[in-house]
Amino acid sequence: MEPAEARVRQHLARLGVAHQVVSCDPALADTAAFCAAYGHSLEDSANTILVVGKSDPPRYVACVVLASTRLDVNRTVRGRLGVKRASFADAEATQVMTGMSIGGVSPLGLPDGLPICVDSRVVRRPRIILGGGSRSCKVIGSPELLTAQLDVEIVDGLAVDPPASATETGA
Known about the structure:
The chain is an alpha+beta fold. It contains 7 helices and 10 strands. It has helices at 3-15, 31-38, 73-81, 91-98, 120-123, 144-147, 166-169; strands at 19-23, 46-53, 59-66, 70-71, 86-88, 116-119, 128-131, 137-141, 152-155, 159-160. The chain is globular and about 40 Å long. The chain starts with a helix and ends with a helix.
């Protein structure tokens, strides 16, 4: 078991919130592939995305949004960080800051001091699927997995609906 996955499992034990850890093929850990392969809905999948605010020193925040939405980096996140520019952290920075690889990043077991912002739509779901700290597992449970944590801030408008595709609009 990877160290980050072990941290997530220890964090879950301390939280005491009902949950299920499910194994997955690491090749299918990315959200769309996981949902398609294992029969889950994108609306139940909550992605954890690390964002870096371009300042000196850089400011980081872990953002949790439903896979069916898009993180509003340029307005909401940038404003919350109080910076002029913000962007998605790359895979290397995410690994360094969280100890987790893309496809397994979780808001559970993150390093102390890393702020966590959660889109309000996530906590309105009856259940959510989160990264498990590695690409080999996911965590399924109620949004209480997030709200039971002290460092979590629920934010309205952290995510936006994706633009309609040309086929949806009839164009």
